[in-house]
Amino acid sequence: MKNAAVNMSVDIGGLVLKNPVMPASGTFGPEMEKVIDFNRLGAIVLKSITMFPRAGNSAPRVCETPAGMINSIGIPSKGIEYYLENSVPSYSKYDSPLISSLSADSIDEFAKLAEIVTKSNDVDAIELNISCPNLKGNGLAFGMDADITFNLVKKVRAVTDKPIITKLTPNVTNIQEIAVAAEEAGSDCLNVANTFLAMSIDVHTRKPKIGNIMGGLSGPATKPIIVRLIYQVSQVVHIPIIGCGGVMSGEDAIEMMLAGATAVQVGTANFIQPDAMIRILKEIESYMEQYQIKDIREIIGQVVINQ
Predict the structure, then answer these.
(1) Helices (H), strands (E): how many in the chain?
(2) 240-272, pLDDT tens digit by residue?
């Protein structure tokens, strides 16, 4: 797939990837080994893990929307012990770095999870899912408050030497403020962004289509907003950004990189076409060959403004 003259490697805060394409947390599992070669991915990102087992939200958990989907899975989990004893070792045979996504109910629990995961040599980086509810506070996502974000990342930074990727929520008025707080607290990279809070109603039954009433909107409908958020965040931080939201093609990935992303995560596309990430990689390479780009880093943040 890869032309020897083309360099697709990127650095996301100290973690070097062979290429910029990886799955979004919650959209990837071992069953996909039947259709794609995991070694061709820039990184492997597993579903968010919690400290203790949990069942997740009530069904229905997913519904389709025009140009997207709404999900409210609720982060079902078998707990950190199962994760380290079973999930993590099963991916150690692959060359692609493993990124652990963490979800917790408090800042202290985030730090404890990070401390535990850091002990695993098979985990290469930590992604903090700070879009989950702050059950110890006012019910808002951790990432909706700059001070909480700063304190959370700072506490995690104190217990791990692995690269920290802070996954921001788009459900805020000023995402730049949150991004700066995460960077100042010690985050090595930012993920822009998690899903958009949304709701869909069946007009015939008059009931919400999601069992939890509301869920997260993802898919191509969100991409233009994500591109805008990436651009805005890239103007105020100095750490790498992973673009996440609506990447369905190589051109979508390139667009995010032009806006300022160093890498991208693919989510909804994996449900539509299980080998979508491999196709996207090929399309990125074709774009580079078309425009005679030797190093993919040459396009990061290179959107032309007012010229």
Answers:
(1) 8, 16
(2) 999 999 999 999 999 999 999 999 999 999 999
- Catalytic option among 63, 132, 189, 244: 132
Measuring CA to CA, which residue among 165, 102, 109, 173 is closest to residue 137? 109
**Alpha-carbon torsion 15, 94, 86, 35, what sign?**
positive
pLDDT digits (tens, 9 = 90+) for 206-227: 999 999 999 999 999 999 999 9
Burial 7-19 (b: 16+ CB within 10 A, else e): bbebebbebebbb
- Active-site annotation holds for 189: no
d(CA 207, CA 205): 5
Decide: 157 and 124 in contact? Cβ < 8 Å. Answer: no
pLDDT digits (tens, 9 = 90+) for 29-61: 999 999 999 999 999 999 999 999 999 998 999
Strand blocks (E) in the chain? 10-11, 16-17, 21-23, 44-45, 62-65, 68-71, 98-102, 125-129, 164-168, 189-192, 196-199, 201-202, 207-208, 214-218, 241-244, 263-266
